[in-house]
Amino acid sequence: MSRILVTGAAGFIGSHLVDRLLEAGHEVTGLDCFTDYYSRETKQQNISRAVVHERFRFIEGDLLRLDLDEVIGVVDEVAHLAGEPGVRTSWGERFAIYTERNVQTTQRLLEAAARNGLERFVYASSSSVYGPDDGGPVDEETPCRPASPYGLSKLAAEELVRLYGREHDVPATILRYFTVYGPRQRPEMALSRFISLAYQGEPVEVFGDGSQMREMTYVSDIVEATVAALAMQPQGLPRAYNVGGGTRTTVRNLVRLVGEIMGERLEVGHGPPVSGDVRSTWADSGRAARELGYEPGVALEKGIEAQIRWALAGHRVPSIA
Ligand SMILES: NC(=O)c1ccc[n+]([C@@H]2O[C@H](COP(=O)([O-])OP(=O)(O)OC[C@H]3O[C@@H](n4cnc5c(N)ncnc54)[C@H](O)[C@@H]3O)[C@@H](O)[C@H]2O)c1
């Protein structure tokens, strides 16, 4: 059993990873500073199971300020999920937050990792590093041309991971997650918004015409890929892996599915398209399948059903602004 640090432990994906690692018998340190991207109460609810577990230790603190030698010195592995998500909000003045929370946090962690002889470092990157698609599935050799400042900050963090792997032998792996959904999904993400608005009988707002395509990945599949990356002994330089769910859908079809499952006829309103939102995402997850044994296990309808069931059980409706 390993001693594992999960950064962003109170977030959507981080909290699921913590639960899964505890279940597997590891000693887990969760770190989070409860940024105001969404509410503290929601994040506290995310980790409410973990905080009472005897093998869990929680550090409330900011990766930009903590003494990371102290934090990393007592763990074997790190899964670095902390960051500022969101394409729409990454333009303009707010980009400074993205450089701090996505780039500088990663550099500080990597410095501490290099000094403390860590066994594994897994970085949660994003499909947003690729940018506009050329109509087919992307593999990891596809050139990265981010379409948003968010994507650029994730790519910069990836470059730091590669740099510290090359120059300081940090044994690192990069995972590029494709749109993640499921219970605890962030409240501003499309599916979360659709479910909340449908529950309140409000028109569902779709950005753009709704024909944009997304590769959707259920959160337990993302977690399994992350667990597999933590278990793997990285050979040579840090390698990137796409992690996609194997199902793609238009945003319009997502709305239709939510309506169907909730038994509601949803009224749809259209907002302006989001600058930096790509037309389509499509993962070739072949490398993750071959080298991590990754195989997505949750079909889209089942996953949406699970998220709706969770939301209706009172965890996240009707809290959306
Ligand atoms: N959700 C997705 O669809 C998706 C897709 C691709 C990549 N990712 C990446 O996965 C990771 C997790 O995403 P999520 O959807 O769970 O986001 P989230 O916002 O729910 O979780 C991120 C957590 O990091 C914490 N955090 C941010 N900056 C911090 C700092 N400086 N110090 C300590 N804690 C800090 C936040 O408080 C938050 O709880 C992110 O790095 C994101 O870029 C997510």
Structure description:
- This protein is of the alpha/beta class.
- It has a domain of 221 residues: NAD(P)-binding Rossmann-like Domain (Rossmann fold, 3-Layer(aba) Sandwich).
- Helix content is 39%, strand content 18%.
- The strands form three sheets. A seven-stranded parallel sheet has the order 3-2-1-4-5-6-10, with helices on both faces. A three-stranded mixed sheet has the order 7-9-11.
- Helix 1 links the parallel strand 1 and strand 2.
- Helix 6 packs across helix 10.
- The radius of gyration is 19 Å and the shape is globular.
- The termini are far apart.
- The model has no long low-confidence stretch (mean pLDDT 95).
- The site of nicotinamide-adenine-dinucleotide (NAD) has 30 residues, from helix 1, strand 2, helix 4 and strand 5.
